[in-house]
Amino acid sequence: MDKKGIGLFLSGVVLCASLFLGKDGIPNKETLYCKAAAASAVLPQGYLAWHSYTSYEAMDSLQYVQLPDGTMTPLQGDFIHAMNADFGSHPFDLVFMAIDAAADEWDLYRCNLLTGKTINLTQHSGYRNEDPKFSPDGMKIVFKRGRWSHENNSFVYDLAEMDLYTQTVTMLTDSDAEESMPYYAADGNSVYYALQQDGLSSIWQFKPASGEQRVIYAEDGVTAYYPVVGNDGLYFTKWYSDQLHNDCIMRLTADGAAVMLPHQSEAYNCSDPFPMTEGLLYSSSEHGNYDLCYSDGSSTAALPACNTDRQELGAVFYPSAALPEFGSGLCDYLLGMETPQQNYDVDGNGVVNGIDLTLWQRMMLLYETETVFGNIP
């Protein structure tokens, strides 16, 4: 590597450290350490993000990120009330929603955890921009965009998509019904979302190529929302019944049947599912406030050091076990070999080059995970 490359590499490491350390290398005052509970269900090693607030109305939400070594800190910048983060194709690429402190407007932000750089993707758009989610290849995001309707005397919410390289926004839907909480299908060719009408919401699917919209799950008198796609299908949250409005988590099977997941109770809420290869992250109000929990399918465990007297919600996870595969794909891409389309821009500067590969290898070693070169002679 030439001197310029080495300088960029070292700058990336320093900036990454500065995100989690204060002056003189002293950890930020709010830095915490979060480990899974000592129980049979153990959260795998990886990168965890979630938000925490006293209440939505209090406007005090903090967006936390935890690294594989357990170090965790809230994201900070010229914004307030940050929440609803999502990881991209690598764990240093993060999008979230927050209120621009100067403009007093809901915007979408993209943070590179490696460099510490955060940009406002929708600054001064004149819209409410919320609920961002990455496409499977990390090249786009889908989100909810709100516009003021003088006819309705309220905001009207539609689905929108942004190309992250050009920051061009394409509107996907246009209706008076509220469309929110979008999530890409595994192949990236359609979007699941919650559609709200007459005070209740149901789960729908939209196919951008054809414009087709169809209902996936609806139940009379029951709200269903928060669709999330896992390796084994679609997950969502719904009320137990039209009479019991506590939340439970469901999974839609291949034949379209909705199955309630185990380890839930009508006595409290379970919501905000995030399916993983090894299990499921979710939030539970069993002990009053919402706490983060993890289930491996046979048992559950709270994440006690993460859980406070606030509401812990919206957990997402990037497993360390996925790092070698990403690094291998990055190496193949740089060698000009055919590789699945993905965002391999590790440092977020818009160019994929050897610096990205070097930074990736360095961060793998730093967090004591398997190096991407471990199986290369």
Low-confidence stretches: 1-39, 369-377
Shape: globular
**SS class:** mainly beta
* Number of DSSP helical runs: 3
Mean pLDDT: 86
The CATH superfamily is TolB, C-terminal domain
Widest sheet: strand order?
1-4-3-2-25
The termini sit apart by 20 Å
> What is the chain-wise order of helices and strands?
HEEEEEEEEEEEEEEEEEEEEEEEEEHH
Rg for CA atoms: 21 Å
| CATH architecture label | 6 Propeller
Structure description:
- The structure is a single chain.
- The chain is mainly beta and 377 residues long.
- It has a single domain (8-323), classed as Neuraminidase, CATH 2.120.10.
- The chain contains 3 helices and 25 strands.
- The strands form 6 sheets. The chain has a 5-stranded antiparallel beta sheet with strand order 1-4-3-2-25, with no helix packed on it. It has a 4-stranded antiparallel beta sheet with strand order 5-6-7-8, with no helix packed on it. A 4-stranded antiparallel beta sheet has the order 9-10-11-12, with no helix packed on it.
- Helix 1 (3-20) crosses helix 3 (354-366) and helix 2 (323-334) packs antiparallel against helix 3 (354-366).
- The protein is globular and about 60 Å long.
- It starts with a helix and ends in an 11-residue tail after the last helix.
- Mean pLDDT is 86; it is low at 1-39 and 369-377.
Could you write a compact summary of the structure shown?
The protein is mainly β. The protein is 11% helix and 42% strand.
For this entry, give a set of tags.
377 residues, mainly beta, Neuraminidase, five-stranded antiparallel beta sheet, four-stranded antiparallel beta sheet, 3 helices, disordered C terminus
